[in-house]
Write a structure and sequence with these properties.
The protein is of the alpha+beta class. It is built from five helices and six strands. The strands form two sheets. It has a four-stranded mixed β-sheet with strand order 4-3-5-6, sandwiched between helices. β1 and β2 form a beta hairpin.
């Protein structure tokens, strides 16, 4: 299997093959509109603008699994992202990233790259880990996505290169992008 074997749904219901993005470097992100990390939409848009001319694309996949922080559907989410954060990168239909109904693309991504221990990197991450214990402790186990704004960096050949947690630095993410562009 490769990332190009997966289908995703656009907010208008249209099915899109990930093959569409062959030859591009991707940053695939599970997002939410009402999360304390929503400021990252602006950072993601800046990366999209900065590296877009080098065949770099950010792909946003709204998810409502983390404290019901994205109750809107894909179309409403896209509108909110455009109006509130100036997002121009593609936003898809709402998906699940953990559990029995995990979208196949995210199941694939979670198993393609190692994850790091979560809850120790910074004070912000420690506080987030404590919140996760209260809301969904199973999200801290194994390869599960811990929270909104987990990112997967995919190279132009479709290989998953790195996973970034929501608390990871934009600077670190940009350095990883620059390394593979």
């Amino acid at each position: 299997m490769s990332i190009y074997n997966y289908l995703v749904k656009k907010p208008n219901g249209e099915i899109l093959s990930m093959e569409t993005y062959r030859g591009k470097t991707l940053l695939i992100v599970n997002t939410a509109n009402q999360c304390r990390f929503t400021y990252q939409f602006e950072d993601l848009q800046k990366m999209y603008d900065k590296y877009g001319k080098e065949n770099f694309v950010v792909l946003g996949f709204p998810c409502d699994q983390f404290g019901n922080q994205n109750p809107e559907d894909g179309e409403q989410t896209t509108q909110l992202c455009q109006v509130n954060y100036g997002v121009a990168f593609p936003i898809f239909e709402v998906v699940q990233v953990n559990g029995d109904a995990t979208h196949p693309l995210f199941n694939y991504l979670k198993h393609e790259v190692d994850y790091r221990a979560f809850g120790k990197a910074s004070m912000q991450e420690k506080m987030l880990a404590e919140s996760i214990v209260q809301i969904a402790p199973s999200f801290l186990e194994g390869r599960n996505i811990r929270w909104n704004f987990t990112k997967f960096l995919i190279d132009a050949n479709g290989k998953t290169v790195e996973r970034f947690e929501p608390t990871d630095s934009q600077l670190d993410i940009e350095q990883a992008i620059e390394k593979i562009l």
